[in-house]
Amino acid sequence: MAETDTFLHLARPLGPVIVGAQPTTAPLNVVVQPQAIFSILDHSLRRNADQERVIGTLLGVRSEDGTEVEIRNCFAVGHTETAEQVEVDMEYQKQMLALHLRANPREVLVGWYATSAELNTFSALIQNFYGGQGDGTWPHPAVHLTVSTVPGQDIEARTYISAPVGVTAERAADSAAFIPVPHEIRYGDAEKSGLELLSGAKDREDRSTGILTDIESLERAIEEVLGMLERVSNYVNSVLDEESPPSSVLGQFLINALALAPKVDPADIERDFNNHIQDVLVISYLANTIRTQIDLSNRLATAALTTGSADGLGGAAAEGGQQKGGREGRGGHRGGRGRGE
Fold it and tell me: What is the reported pTM?
């Protein structure tokens, strides 16, 4: 039997209830952007050698009903943690949060992250701070994102919200029940291309990879599409040959995908593709012509300035020589008159 994650959502108040306002612990669906994961990994790589984990603040957007949270950004928060106590730079966190919200007015505080899968008393203390009233996410629950950064192991991310447990008032600040919530890492086409480029360096010893040209990117995309078509074709043939068990869900998905494909004649596709290639070549030719014209204009302007400066210096030297000769002539004439007398 395959192992699947199950989630239990508790509807409990997050803290003291204010008249006219009710907190919520509605089931959440958390969407994590790749840039947030990269920032967390970079923070983990730069941590001190004696630190087991690092923490930081999560920023993003929340749906109107509060049931979906999208984590778009994050920043690190300094803290020191021992077996007896934990200290978090709250003043730095508040100042950085104000700066980020000023630069990105659409984003809000959604929670915090830690580079360790362990949940302890200190985690509950920090969770209650981020989910509290005032500077916290109240009345919405704070999202806690854990990212495991153990060397040699796969990166595993989990998301939680919390609810208070029935303990004494003295222990309420450092007590919380963490509730797992589903999450997904969502990325667009541009981010997918960047991730594929980065993953291409994992099998190289120098951990480097070259940037593909547009033609190479198009060739790789076509090869990937052909590979997927071949895989689907092999699966369909294996089902028809009764070598693989059929799946009604997968069959319906393939039917819907094929129904979206336009009914176009292959000759029309080839003609449109050739026209597009010609348009691209014309644009490339015009761009090269404009670049050559700009370079030629710059060279002519530089040559004109250089020639003008040289002519100016030569004219000034000639004029200076004439003035000097004139003064010498006048001096000699006056001298001659003096001797004649």
Answer: 0.59
